[in-house]
Design brief:
The protein is an alpha/beta fold. It has helices at about 5-25, 45-55, 65-80, 120-130, 150-160, 160-165, 180-185, 205-220, 230-240; strands spanning about 35-40, 60-65, 85-90, 105-110, 130-145, 190-200, 255-265. It contains 9 helices and 7 strands. α4 (about 120-130) links the parallel β4 and β5. The structure holds S-adenosylmethionine.
Length: about 270
Amino acid sequence: MDMNLYMQSLLVANPLRESTLRTVIETLQLPLGSSGLDAGCGIGLQCMLLAEAVGSTGHVTGLDISPELLNRGKEIVKEAGLSERISFQVGDVTNIPFDNETFDWAWSADCIGYGPWEPLPLLKELSRVVKPGGMVAISGWSSENLLPGYPRLEAHLRSTSGGMAPFIHGKSPKTHFLRALSWFREAGLKEPNAKVFANSFHAPLRRDIRNALVDLFTMRWPEGELELSSEDLEEFRSLCQPESPGFILNLSNYYAFFTHTLFWGKTPA
Ligand SMILES: C[S@@+](CC[C@H](N)C(=O)[O-])C[C@H]1O[C@@H](n2cnc3c(N)ncnc32)[C@H](O)[C@@H]1O
């Protein structure tokens, strides 16, 4: 994977996600002054939201497998003046390099439960590093409606590999992100809970939102990999490619929405 491109796409996508993820994090009511882990933190964009939530006496540790992403994260956090409140650690979410009961809470966005791994052992590993009675939370992108007026094409796109990623057709339904409540129960977490958060955008689109949507179209529906009929492909090219005169983001009344889902629970006291 080209890490520079990946870092760029996390930054480009951020305007679509930031305000929703801030609300998601507020829902958790993390205690002021608490310390927590962001597992699979990427370039640390949610570390900053988590640091906001726990206030100036709290602390966030961002963990990621990629040193390049963490180095970029360090720069971003420094520019934001948050270096004292956020630290980074290279490590693997399948074997988190911290002792049992290190943190008051642990969080993971679009990583744990959302990747190619078996989710239950990962959730247990995340819970292991949280103190008794602490919070364990995972969140993930859970749906989108991006093609108003074209429900058939959008349904077909949703059933392509890119459209249903990171889930893979044929995998056990129990491993689908929206089945996470059962993992929380099986991991012995208390008071498992789930909530959906929606966000919407409409024309006229801000430049950064438009760029993020263009990036999203390309990422979810890479043309070379689309399993579409020739009729769908023609409609897709006309509606979803920025150079097309019929590009859907040019509609004067364009409207789109999508959701993130949060699952959370507590370690036994
Ligand atoms: C989709 S990104 C999400 C990044 C960040 N949480 C966000 O939402 O902006 C998934 C992240 O998980 C990290 N990751 C993948 N496998 C990992 C592993 N085994 N251990 C730790 N991090 C991992 C990737 O490097 C990437 O930063």
